[in-house]
Amino acid sequence: MTAELVRGQNHPLPQVRLEVRVSAGKPIVAGATLSDAQGKVRGVDWVAHPGAPTLPGLEVSKQAAADHRLAFDLDALPESVHCVTVLLALPTGIGGPVRFGALAAPFVAVTGLDGSEVASYTVTGLDAESAVIALELYRRQGGWKVRAVGQGYAGGLAALLTDQGLPEARQLAAGINEAVTQGLARSVAPPPPRLPESDRTRQTAAPAAPPGGSGAVPPQQGAPDVPQQGSPYDVTGSPDPVPQPASGGPVNYTHPGRQTTTPPPPPPVAPPAPPGQPAQPVAGDATGWSMEERLYNQVWGMFEDLARTAAAYRSAVDFADARMEQELDRVLSDPRSRLGGQGDPVREAAQAKHTDLVNQARAALDRDLTQLIAESGVVEPALPPAFAGWDNPVWHGYRVPMEIPMAVRLGDLHLPESESLRIPMLVRLPLERGLWIDSGRSGSLDPVADSGDLRRLAMETAVTHAARLLAVYPPGEFTVHVIDPAGSGSSALAPLVRSGVLAAPPATGAAGVADVLTRLAQRVDLVQMAVRGGASDSLPPGLDTAEHLLVVNDFPHGFDDRAVNQLRYLADEGPAVGVHLMMVADREDAAAYGPLLDPLWRSLLRLTPVPDDHLADPWVGHAWTYEPPRVPQGSQVLEHVLNQVAQARRSWDH
Q1: Cystine design at 153: which of 54, 55, 159, 398 (Cβ 3.0–4.6 Å)?
Q2: Which of 609, 558, 647 minimizes the C-alpha distance to 451?
Q3: CA–CA separation, 199 vs 145, rounded Å?
Q4: What is the mean pLDDT of residues 5-29?
Q5: Which residue in 608, 182, 214 sits closest to 425, CA to CA?
Q6: DSSP code of residue 52
Q7: Alpha-carbon distance 318 to 323, whole Å?
Q8: How many CA atoms lie within 13 Å of 365's alpha carbon, on the beta-carbon side?
Q9: Could you please report the per-residue DSSP string of 448-510?
Q10: What distances in angstroms separate CA 367 from CA 25, 191, 200, 360, 435, one per listed residue?
């Protein structure tokens, strides 16, 4: 039975391998500190944070996120550690909330590795604080207990760490925030919790993998009284015949089960599978009230499964490489083996073991990929327009929707191990971050002839994104504005202009730029004042309450200092009141502004007009290859959809 704690209450912990799950609704930083019997943190090596997420016995998230899973193995902690403090903080410099009083109360739960909840605590009573100690896990009479603390600090992480006796508190707090802002600008938005494996028809098992593989961060060196251990996620037992190292067990890359707070309707029933064979995949095999929600959860489940199986494969290969290297080092350390032929059989045996391990890992990976590819083949044709690729036949029967979908597809994701498997990149609506379509060169996987081609492709990609957003919103619920100071994007913008879906012709010249930015900034001001004053019904009668998207081409050409400041204001404050930004720009072109624009770039989700491996997942840090949406060559689907949108808009206006 779960113990629902209040501030100051404690509860015994029945096990030492556990997780702390955090839910905050908005991206926050989660970390942990170790302290001795006097309650002192001995140094920075006793702090686990996004820049150094792994310490012996504990592992925290690498990025700011709305939901976190912190892993603990209390038996693996050094004897000198008497208390583990779980801390939460708001990241700075990304345009998010600056005090916990502006958020829903964070919820933390201590669970077993199987997800069973031991104790929970809702951190209430916070106001101006930007950092808080949520829980303490502490030794008591040979066992461990958890205490609900809820102590907040208006001075942020620096004040919290200083209070724990850390001399380098201010420098460490700055380093943590820098690590978070760098990671946030390149991360894929995390998906919702996924279903328990028993609720899915897919019967894949996690391939065994030794600790320390791809995506794992090595423990900090030189920590006082800190033995070097593996990840606390390590568990014993493995369904696959991949040999493991003598100490520790395989890493369990299984992610939390998809769950909802309300009972879902029963999912489709898969046909029974032959004995020993995985069940046939079914579209909508996930929890949710509607088919749209179930498909959304299923797509993210496929993303998680691919991340897990690729991580297990890479970890197994790394282990095989390391073991072969150790065996060869032992042979080469003996002069007799180097000079004579006595070492040849040992070398051949080491190579044979390495090949066998890699082949077993590859077989497990291929098994999982086969199942995921089969599931993708069933799910992709069943996706609604908001989730579907432009080559999906669903667009040929497109009708303007009457309800806003829960998410929209912004492209596809895949890994080097799965070139034939594409996972839709679904982002929740309304957009919480603006988009930056990068028109500069950045080591792309798809070489382009020159920068002019990249700029053209970037603008075409922006038009495709804007068209999809227009297509998935009901009539009158989404408005697109375009700023094209020099008119260089006129060719790419032609589908939007010809169809008449834009609120006004693209703004050109300095006067046009200033007019659009001033009007949108004023709208943000009005809505913010009304919301903060609790007078949402007192907005001017003629104010357009639709979501607004501003597409900016060729930034910073045609922008003066005032326009740049207005643009930053829209990027920071606009999403909360329905004004979103899509930049088409090369960051190097804005270098003349110096660090002034760095917060702007970090606040936007960077997408590319050509395939590029710049996105990282929130769990194991894979470099995912992003592929932008493409309209099939010669297809008229984009024009067909935009004409439908324009016609519905005209009917709605009248």
Answers
A1: 159
A2: 609
A3: 33
A4: 89
A5: 608
A6: B
A7: 9
A8: 24
A9: -S-HHHHHHHHHHHHHHHHHHHHHHSPTTSEEEEEE-TTSTTHHHHHHHHHHT-SSSSPB-HH
A10: 36, 24, 17, 11, 36
Cα 469 from Cα 369, distance rounded (Å) = 31
Residue pointed to by tokens 């960051």: 587
Is the CB of residue 157 less than 8 Å from the CB of residue 173? Answer: yes
State how far the alpha carbon of 231 is from the alpha carbons of 4, 70, 369, in Å.
28, 11, 26
Contact 357, 243 (CB under 8 A): yes
312 token code pair: 């297990």
Q: Shortest CA distance to 574 belongs to which of 524, 634, 500? A: 524
Predicted pLDDT of residue 517: 94
How far, rounded to the nearest angstrom, does the alpha carbon of residue 552 sit from its chain's CA centroid? 25
Q: Enter the tokens of residue 318.
A: 């790394």
How many other C-beta atoms lie within 10 A of the C-beta of residue 360? 18
- Helices 169-184 and 156-163 sit at what angle, rounded to 10 degrees? 140
Distance CA 214, CA 416 (A): 13
Paired with 483 in beta bridges are 507, 552
Number of alpha carbons in the 13 Å side-chain half-sphere of residue 580 = 23
Distance of alpha carbon 457 from alpha carbon 451, whole angstroms: 10
pTM listed for this prediction: 0.62
Q: How far apart are CA 439 and CA 610, in angstroms?
A: 10
Q: What is the DSSP letter of 413?
A: E
Q: 3-class SS at 398?
A: coil
What are the distances in angstroms from CA 405 to CA 222, 249, 383, 393? 51, 43, 12, 19
Q: How far is CA 495 from CA 465, 516, 628, 652, in A?
A: 12, 21, 18, 21
Contact criterion met (CB below 8 Å) for 41 and 87 = no
| CB within 8 Å of 203: residues ≥ 6 apart | 273, 278, 279, 371
Smallest Cα–Cα separation from 440: which of 609, 611, 187, 625? Answer: 609
For residues 563 and 513, the answer to whether their CB atoms sit within 8 Å is: yes
- Rounded to the nearest angstrom, the gap between the alpha carbon of residue 382 and the centroid of all alpha carbons in its chain is 25
pLDDT tens-place string over residues 371-409: 999 999 999 999 999 999 999 999 988 999 989 999 999
- State the residue for tokens 């590319």: 608
All residues at 6 or more sequence positions from 38 whose CB lies less than 8 Å from its CB, including other chains? none
Cα–Cα distances (Å) from 165 to 41, 85, 625, in that order, read 6, 13, 43
DSSP for residue 113: T
What is the pLDDT, as a whole number, of residue 7? 86
Q: 495 is written with which tokens?
A: 């589908």
Residue of 501, 446, 454 lying closest to 479 (CA atoms): 501
Using N-to-C axis directions, what is the helix angle for 490-499 and 451-472, rounded to 10°? 20
29-57 tens-digit pLDDT: 999 999 988 888 988 999 999 888 889 88
CA–CA dist 454, 457 (Å, integer): 5
Return the structure tokens found at 640. 């067909």
Helix (H), strand (E), coil (C) string for 289-323: CCHHHHHHHHHHHHHHHHHHHHHHHHHHHHHHHHH
393 within 8 A of 402, measured Cβ to Cβ = no
Tell me how far apart the alpha carbons of residues 51 and 255 are, in angstroms, rounded to a whole number. Answer: 22
